[in-house]
Design a protein that fits this description.
There is one protein chain. Helix content is 30%, strand content 23%. With 122 residues, the protein is an alpha+beta fold. It folds into two domains: 70 residues, Alpha-Beta Complex (Nucleoside Triphosphate Pyrophosphohydrolase), CATH 3.90.79.10; 39 residues, no CATH class. The longest helix is centred in the first third of the chain and has 16 residues.
Length: 122
């Protein structure tokens, strides 16, 4: 689940938030929105409530395609990016392989909107 920061300190508007989401999708995954693709807003979350008012925005990027011009950002810590099935995500969550709040929150949000089933039977 790619994530990043809005570059400047002005109050972010919807366009800057979406631009940031598309930039991070490209930088961290090597994918971009396909022709006719869209960013579906899925709300936001607080990263550390009670400690800071920092929050992140969730988007579902569909439909995507590999970017012809992907170059890993200098100093980027992501070494590999790959797709996972719903069954693989369930197993990785259950076995505590996935334990970062951003990814766990995004999986819950996708499940709540009906984009992902976390039910082992389907």
């Amino acid at each position: 689940m790619p994530g990043g920061q809005i570059e400047d300190t002005r109050e972010p508007d919807e366009n800057r938030i979406k631009e940031t989401a598309q930039r991070e999708l490209h930088e961290e995954t090597g994918y971009e929105l396909a022709s006719g693709g869209e960013l579906v807003p899925l709300g936001y979350y607080f990263s550390s409530p009670g400690f800071t008012d920092e929050h992140g925005y969730f988007f579902l990027a569909r439909y995507v395609e590999p970017s012809a011009e992907h170059k890993r950002e200098e100093g980027e810590g992501i070494l590999e990016c790959r797709a996972f099935s719903a069954a693989q995500l369930r197993r990785m969550i259950a076995e505590n392989e996935i334990r970062d709040a951003n990814t766990l929150s995004m999986c819950a949000r996708l499940a709540a909107y009906g984009f992902l089933s976390l039910n082992p039977q389907g």
